[in-house]
């Protein structure tokens, strides 16, 4: 059974295969490759792109998707073990997940972080769901990673720059109104490391990504030839970047995020930053994005912005990765 919940389920070769198939299928529609297959989609958290792109991927491939929103129209699910279930959650994942496995061929799950990066990186809920599932599980973003986003990001860069190996990418922290999870920056770093890119992660001091993720990225870089750099100087880190990937993320619960975000409000990405180096950097963000908080409206509206084609590529990589899930690799 093939679970695709983390970049480590794929490794550099698996990532490369998914990207190649996505490119081929984007050029020439493969038709109803998943005819008769059903994907269950279980949402503990909201979504626009992930839900629509997975549903579209299944429908375009002759299959079907069943969407279950845990916070609306379904029973609330208890996820903790050993608790007395006398609150507002009448069903436990230990029954719900194997029950769904009798109805669908694979289960896609979205379960966001709790806001404590040191614990979120353990990805306890996604691993518990994997453990009790009788069908393959695909991540639609969990506490630790958002692998479909990372794959779509790599596909977008590959299309825009023509290759991935050695391309200069900068992942820049940006301010936000609240501390956000680290799943997207984690996935971007791990995917770029798997693809052999030259990545610089830049953020104010105190916003380092989790050591376990940095270690995994270093191991992937050892396999792929990627270069990883870390900096606290946003302007210098963006000067030579072909791509500036913007994302906000929060520190641990002991840090005052609003003070930190106010102190670093000038990290909002604007056109002069993208145009400051020898080359004009192209702009990426996973969306949704708060205009004039995270990225300026004029940068998002400029020709440098890739955010819409980047979101469109979610459909193409997910259609491709479902091949591994339903039909087993190449
Ligand atoms: N980027 C992303 O996952 O978007 P949604 O939260 O809208 O699915």
Structural features, described:
By secondary structure, the protein is α/β, with parallel strands linked by helices. The protein has two domains: 7-145 and 314-327, Aspartate/ornithine carbamoyltransferase (Rossmann fold); 149-310, Aspartate/ornithine carbamoyltransferase (Rossmann fold, 3-Layer(aba) Sandwich). The protein is built from 13 helices and eleven strands. The protein has helices spanning 11-27, 49-60, 93-101, 117-120, 124-132, 147-161, 183-194, 211-224, 234-239, 257-263, 271-274, 297-300, 307-327, and strands at residues 38-43, 64-69, 77-78, 91-92, 106-110, 137-139, 168-173, 198-202, 227-231, 243-247, 282-284. The strands form three sheets. It has a five-stranded parallel sheet. A four-stranded parallel sheet has the order 2-1-5-6, sandwiched between helices. Helix 6 packs across helix 13 (307-327). The longest helix has 21 residues, at 307-327. The protein starts with 10 loop residues before the first helix and ends with a helix. 48% of the residues are buried. It binds phosphoric acid mono(formamide)ester. Phosphoric acid mono(formamide)ester (CP) binds next to helix 2.
